[in-house]
UniProtKB/TrEMBL annotation:
InterPro entries assigned: Calycin, Fatty_acid-bd, ILBP, Lipocln_cytosolic_FA-bd_dom
Regions annotated as coiled coil: none
PANTHER family in the cross-refs: FATTY ACID BINDING PROTEIN
Stated name of the protein: Fatty acid-binding protein, intestinal-like isoform X1
Length: 132
C-alpha cells in the first residue's frame, strides 16, 4: 500500500450517476465531471494528511484511521464517518447528516493507479487517479 504522493484525476466511471443519486443538481454534476481533482496524500502510520484541490475548492483533511471524521463535500453536503485499513485497502463509511444514508468508499492501488470506488444506494462509481 503506497497512497503517499500526488495524484491527479485521470478518469471517472459512473460518477455523474452517483452524484445524481445523491441529489446533486445537474449543473454541479456537469461541473464535477471536469473538476481537475488532485490529491496530495501523506501518511505517518495510521495518520493521514490529504490536500484536496479542484476547480471548486482546496482543503486539507487530517485524520487517523478508525477515528470519527466530519467532512463536507464541495456542494456543502455534510458527512460523518471513519476510514479503516483492511490490508492494502482504505475503506470508508460515511453517513449523510441530512438523511442518514450511507456513502461507502474505498481507496486502493491497482496497477499503479489510485482507484477510489464509491457506493451509494446500490449505485457504484469510480474515480481513477494517476501519479503526478
Amino acid at each position: 500500500m503506497d497512497f503517499v504522493g500526488t495524484w491527479k484525476l485521470d478518469r471517472s466511471e459512473n460518477y455523474e450517476k452517483l452524484l445524481e443519486k445523491m441529489g446533486v443538481d445537474e449543473e454541479k454534476r456537469k461541473l464535477a465531471a471536469h473538476d481537475n481533482m488532485k490529491l496530495k496524500i501523506k501518511q505517518n502510520g495510521k495518520q493521514f494528511s490529504v490536500h484536496e484541490s479542484s476547480v471548486f475548492r482546496t482543503i486539507d483533511i487530517n485524520f487517523t484511521v478508525t477515528e470519527l471524521l466530519q467532512y463536507s463535500l464541495a456542494d456543502g453536503l455534510e458527512l460523518v464517518g471513519a476510514w479503516k485499513l483492511n490490508g492494502d485497502i482504505m475503506e470508508g463509511e460515511f453517513t449523510r447528516k441530512d438523511n442518514k444514508k450511507v456513502l461507502k468508499t474505498t481507496r486502493e492501488i491497482v496497477g499503479g493507479e489510485l482507484v477510489q470506488t464509491f457506493s451509494y444506494e446500490e449505485v457504484k462509481a469510480k474515480r481513477i487517479f494517476v501519479r503526478e
